[in-house]
Design brief:
By secondary structure, the chain is mostly helical. Helix content is about 70%, strand content about 0%. A hairpin with a 2-residue loop joins strand 1 (about 30) and strand 2 (about 35). The longest helix is centred in the N-terminal third of the chain and has 30 residues, at about 80-110.
Length: about 300
């Protein structure tokens, strides 16, 4: 039920490339029958509604099994933790902007600059290097700074990188104009990815680590799907001169980055207080990694 629900939600977003988000740009057929005529509400929302119904069915099913004391795929109590919910929100957006931005850049290089796949991959190298450098220093960063601070800093650096891409890159600009923006984008993503996972998993005791780890991975995959779906829709929907649809799509990714920044700011400074109610005597072994300090 959960897989079918997520499938229809993502499929609906992908259909926006053909039908748009508002009024349908073409007739929607099932076989030879026109189900939604051109000019009516976009079938995107039909697919999203079907997905939402399956997801609602899933959660009701899980709730019913929990009330009977039966084992469930995903305990709903995992969603009652404010800190974890904010951390999961940042994870969705991080993977959304990571996959979405690389998709935008890749298509732009091949459609506007007429680069082949190998040349495109080489241009993306600064972003990859930035991610690798920041990820390599993740452990050191976590020992010196709170995880919340790293998430905020990561989104800020990522936003600066996107702004540089929008400001410097043009259809006739030099190759070097890609380097500062992509590098900062990669550094920002690398700084915050591990920190978000730490925030989420440190919000629960050891006995819940398997469940919350699976939920965290699923949320990340969902963000990746949303990123490519939304960007692809924007590239097709934006009826603008050459290069402009890509600017629109990248601007959309920048907006999501700023939303992620807000979620990062909303994470409490001392998340351990948010989870203390679930284990007041501390016997479940809660570990607060969001406020990690170096020894001494």
């Amino acid at each position: 039920m959960s897989a079918v629900g997520l499938f229809f939600v993502v499929l609906g977003l992908l259909q926006s490339r053909t039908y748009g988000f508002g009024k349908s740009r073409a007739d929607f057929h099932i076989g030879s029958t026109v189900v939604i005529p051109k000019g009516s509400i976009s079938p995107v929302w039909l697919f999203v509604a079907i997905g939402a119904l399956f997801l609602l069915w899933f959660f009701l099913h899980v709730h019913g099994r929990e009330k009977k004391g039966k084992a469930v795929l995903l305990p709903l109590r995992l969603f009652r933790n404010k800190v974890s919910n904010l951390g999961l929100g940042t994870q969705v957006i991080q993977w959304l902007i990571l996959q979405g931005t690389f998709f935008v850049v890749s298509v732009y290089l091949q459609e506007v600059w007429k680069y082949n796949a190998i040349q495109t991959g080489l241009i993306l190298t600064p972003g990859t290097i930035g991610i690798l450098i920041a990820s390599a220093g993740a452990d050191r960063f976590a020992r010196r700074h709170p995880q919340r601070w790293l998430i905020i800093a990561g989104f800020l650096i990522t936003a600066v990188g996107m702004i540089l891409l929008l400001a410097l890159v043009r259809a006739d600009s030099a190759i070097w104009t890609w380097i500062p923006g992509l590098f900062l984008f990669g550094v920002g993503v690398g700084v915050m990815l591990t920190s978000s996972v730490n925030v989420v998993q440190s919000s629960f005791p050891d006995k819940d680590q398997g469940d919350i780890s699976g939920l965290s991975r699923s949320v990340s995959n969902l963000g990746s799907s949303f990123g490519t779906a939304l960007v692809g829709s924007a590239l097709v929907a934006a009826k603008l001169p050459a290069g402009k649809p890509f600017a629109v799509a990248l601007t959309m990714m920048l907006v999501f980055t700023l939303i992620g920044l807000v979620l990062g700011v909303l994470i409490p400074r001392k998340p351990i207080e948010a989870t203390a109610a679930a284990d007041p005597d501390g016997r479940d072994g809660l570990v607060d990694t969001t406020e990690t300090r170096p020894p001494g």
